[in-house]
Write a structure and sequence with these properties.
This protein is 74% helix and 0% strand. By secondary structure, the protein is mainly α.
């Protein structure tokens, strides 16, 4: 699986102690890890501790040059967090609630599978975005990535006003959706 430029930028930001990179990684990854921990006899505080430990593992691997990342950062952190949490449970000799001994483990596996599916869908969306063409690609990047407002986009792309830019953005989104769902429907989902 190829890493997107944003993933590489986030890893570089983490390595260079960029607080914005850490914030983005946190926003994209923490919720699923928190769910994992809480669904397996943990608390929010446990989730924060485990997430912090997983970030440290990621950072140390980056720093040492031993990171061979073949998935998204959030998938890597989820996997490390799961392993760390299971190890902590084992050390504390905790048991799952009576009668539910296998359900949490199955739930974790299902959640990991769901995360892999989401990653595949995001990759498919990235492919659709890359095949979108200009000016749509640049316009959507300006709005969603660079967070320019419609006035600035109108000026930058030569539209008569913000409303024209907004209409063009809508048309570009419709086009992007069409490309995505054509690829999705045609089975290009797991490529």
């Amino acid at each position: 699986m190829k890493q997107s430029f944003d993933e590489k930028a986030l890893l570089e930001g983490l390595l260079n102690h960029n607080p914005k990179a850490v914030e983005i990684i946190y926003k994209e990854s923490f919720h699923s890890i928190q769910s994992l921990i809480i669904n397996n006899n943990g608390s929010s505080d446990d989730a924060k501790d485990i997430f912090q430990e997983a970030i440290i593992v990621l950072y140390e691997k980056l720093r040492s040059g031993n990171l061979n990342l073949n998935c998204q950062i959030k998938t890597f952190l989820y996997s490390v967090s799961r392993r760390l949490w299971l190890k902590r449970l084992q050390v504390q000799n905790r048991q799952y609630t009576t009668g539910d001994s296998l359900e949490p483990v199955i739930q974790v596996d299902d959640e990991l599978e769901l995360q892999k599916q989401r990653d595949a869908d995001f990759e498919l969306m990235e492919k659709a975005f890359q095949s979108l063409g200009e000016p749509c690609k640049s316009l959507l990047e300006a709005f969603y990535i660079h967070q320019l407002n419609m006035q600035m986009i109108a000026k930058k792309f030569g539209y008569t006003n913000a409303e024209s830019a907004k209409n063009q953005k809508y048309k570009c989104l419709v086009r992007l959706k069409k490309i995505f769902f054509e690829n999705y429907k045609n089975g290009n989902r797991d490529e």
